[in-house]
Amino acid sequence: MHKIAVLPGDGIGPEVMKQAIKVLGKISEKYNTKFEFSFADVGGIAIDNHGTPLPESTLKLCEASEAILFGSVGGPKWENLPPAQQPERGALLPLRKHFGLFANLRPVKIFKALIDSSSLKNSLIPDGLDIVFFRELTGGIYFGQPKEISEDRQSARDTMLYTVPEVERIARQAFEAARMRGKKVTSVDKANVLMTSVLWRETVTRLHKEEYSDVELAHMYVDNAAMQLVRYPSQFDVIVTENMFGDILSDEAAMLTGSLGMLPSASLNEDGFGLYEPIGGTAPDIAGQNIANPIAQIMSAALMLRYSFKMDDAASNIEKAIETLLSEGIRTRDIYIDGQGQKLVNTDEIGDLIVSRI
Are 227 and 248 in contact (CB under 8 A)? Predict the structure, then answer.
């Protein structure tokens, strides 16, 4: 029995989460394993129902579970709240810090059937795209102290701080992954300006020399990396970087696939406990219409099977089912191209079709 805390969140979150649970139900049958799903409020809906984006009851449920399957949080309704009370800042950041979820894995992959949906020319990605980001998630400018706005609101400051152990542990994750992939790591920093990046580069270089000399290592400034991702993305395999740079670059790379609705993520701690969520947001403009793409949420569930439950075969089964379905021309609205003989389906339908191919 695997205990999973399910936090659907806001907007399209509950709609796409429904499909992920449906797929996990099929996996439960096929692989003779049991999942115990416990649902709780988080984000905007938690503010409405409990007065806080991360209720104590939700946190306790997560502590009693083996993994967290997270939807999306936020929306216009809560944008005018004080910053610390807003859904994103008040729920996701505390969860990451509480559980020590320092390693954020963001696979950026274009299925061959979706190359025409990419914002890039086909000539730049003839065989698709397969990059994985390792973003340090619990340090840097998002968590450094002091963090404040002056009383007269005429100045503000955030503190960017990194320690050698923080850099080492995320770099080690990236090098280990590269050994299983293309044996190439690109470390992204801003060492020509930031002292934290000087330390970052020194630490990654030393770790590479001492433990991972069999893996190719390249260093790249973050501004150049942003350009290279749209100029020649196939040069990258594993990218490792600090919190803020990773936040920005992984979203840029995500759009190269044609839709944020296609990309999952995993946030892991040193014990393998993880929070799994789609990269896209709550999409309040389409919430409740049964047209959202649930593939990112479903693939996040697949990452949960792989990393938290060591069910790699089941995770691969889900990914293969999605690839098969896309190759058959089945599309949700965000990846549908008129005039190409594709079949347009809604959220519930694509969930059912993925289940039927597992």
Answer: no
